[in-house]
User: Which sequence fits this backbone?
């Protein structure tokens, strides 16, 4: 009886017809669009390095950061122009418009924004791909003479 | 200020206070134009640091050799020994000789713990002046300049982050539980006042009143501002430092509110990139 049952169950098994996973969405292409800030965190990197208390502060509601938007335009998979619209927010990126590039088209880590002679670099903290739809960006500030990391600002953007 | 005026004997009775006041004024005016720079710009008592100072406009302008006279903790916290290199006022030690950087610029390199013979925990800040080897000429005092702490110590007035430049969001904090006076402990804080200064010591614009708040579960009041948004230095100048204090009210013996403020704290901007 047991053997018959096992045979019936075995005969019921059929291979599932899974579709191919496909290519991973391009991280660079995922950056295109208009992004608005949803979260701002300031970190005292020197305090964190020393293990001091008071290492981070949530600035999201301190100033109207959520007004700030960043638009990244692309031509196919090639970055082209950008614009920033601060509204009443502090200007986290001082450049109003220009061109943007990435350090590595396949897996970018640094976005470079160029407007005439001025340049701003932001470090990506995460790609807005898959389940993660947020664009995370970090701005680091170093001691001008020693190069020591002192402060970082982490901005989380969501696509509009 | 070290040794200043100690050998002056007034030839005319009553003239000494006038001479002293005039000299102090001249020295202070001369010193206003000078702002020392440090490399690195922030340092602990265990770090080697090079200070550079331009003495143009002081009695030391044009001298061929300059010596540093340096001392610990001019702000009054902790022991206050002179630097081990100082020597005698009328005969500076050769190890206190400064390095010429051309023109009226001089530099001196030191490590706080070695220079003052103190543990890092005992070193909070330092002051210095420049002098000739025999002390016949000197600048006014430059002070206080803080060492970065190696151990966190709660303080009544504190900023976050601990080091900021002019474009940072600055959180000023007042921990009322650490108030040193009756008024600071009793006051109901209502605002903070921030005043900015340029590199010459001149005030940059008008003081700014900052709104403050506090979490009911703590005794820490806080307010925020962005220096280069709230203040503009005059043309040709830069924001160099700011002062801040918290304001509030206490009830006097008649039950009437009276305005009071905390001490003022000073923060020098760090140059960042």
Assistant:
């Amino acid at each position: 009886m047991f053997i018959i049952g096992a045979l019936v169950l075995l005969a019921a098994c059929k291979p599932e017809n899974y579709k191919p996973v496909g290519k991973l969405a391009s991280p660079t292409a995922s950056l295109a669009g208009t992004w608005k800030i949803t979260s701002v965190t300031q970190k005292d990197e020197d305090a964190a390095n020393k293990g001091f208390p008071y290492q981070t502060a949530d600035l999201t509601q301190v100033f109207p950061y959520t007004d700030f938007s960043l638009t990244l335009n692309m031509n196919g998979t090639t970055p082209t122009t950008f614009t920033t619209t601060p509204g009443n927010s502090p200007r986290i990126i001082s450049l109003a418009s220009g061109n943007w590039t990435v350090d590595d088209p396949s897996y970018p880590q640094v976005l470079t924004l160029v407007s005439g002679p001025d340049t701003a670099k932001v470090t990506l903290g995460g790609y807005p791909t898959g389940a993660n739809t947020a664009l995370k960006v970090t701005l680091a500030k170093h001691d001008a003479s020693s190069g020591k990391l002192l402060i970082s600002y982490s901005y989380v953007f969501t696509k509009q | 200020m070290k040794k200043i005026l100690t050998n002056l004997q007034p030839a005319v009775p009553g003239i000494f206070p006038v001479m002293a006041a005039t000299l102090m004024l001249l020295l202070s005016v001369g010193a206003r134009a000078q702002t020392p720079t440090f490399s690195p710009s922030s340092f602990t008592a265990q770090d080697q640091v090079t200070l550079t100072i331009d003495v143009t406009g002081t009695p030391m302008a044009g001298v061929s050799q300059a010596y540093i006279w340096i001392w610990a903790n001019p702000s009054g916290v902790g022991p206050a020994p002179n630097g081990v290199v100082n020597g005698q006022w009328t005969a500076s030690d050769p190890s206190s000789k400064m390095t010429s950087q051309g023109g009226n610029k001089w530099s001196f390199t030191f490590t706080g713990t070695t220079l003052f013979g103190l543990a890092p925990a005992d070193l909070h800040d330092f002051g210095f002046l420049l002098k000739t080897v025999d002390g016949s000429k000197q600048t006014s005092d430059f002070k206080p300049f803080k060492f970065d702490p190696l151990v966190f110590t709660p303080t009544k007035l504190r900023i976050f982050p601990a080091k900021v430049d002019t474009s940072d969001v600055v959180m000023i904090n007042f921990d009322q539980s650490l108030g040193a006076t009756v008024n600071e402990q009793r006051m109901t804080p209502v605002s903070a006042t921030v005043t900015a200064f340029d590199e010459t010591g001149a005030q940059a614009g008008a003081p700014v009143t900052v709104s403050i708040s506090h979490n009911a579960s703590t005794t820490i009041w806080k307010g925020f501002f962005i220096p280069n948004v709230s203040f503009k230095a005059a043309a040709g100048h830069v924001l160099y430092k700011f002062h801040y204090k918290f304001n509030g009210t206490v009830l006097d013996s008649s039950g009437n509110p009276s305005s009071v403020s905390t001490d003022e704290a000073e923060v020098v901007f760090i140059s960042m990139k």
About this structure: Chain A touches chain B at residues 42-44, 46-47, 50, 52-54, 57, 59, 62-63, 90, 141-146, 148, 150-151 (CB under 8 Å). Helices of chain A lie at 2-12, 45-50. The first strand of chain A starts at residue 33 and ends at 44.
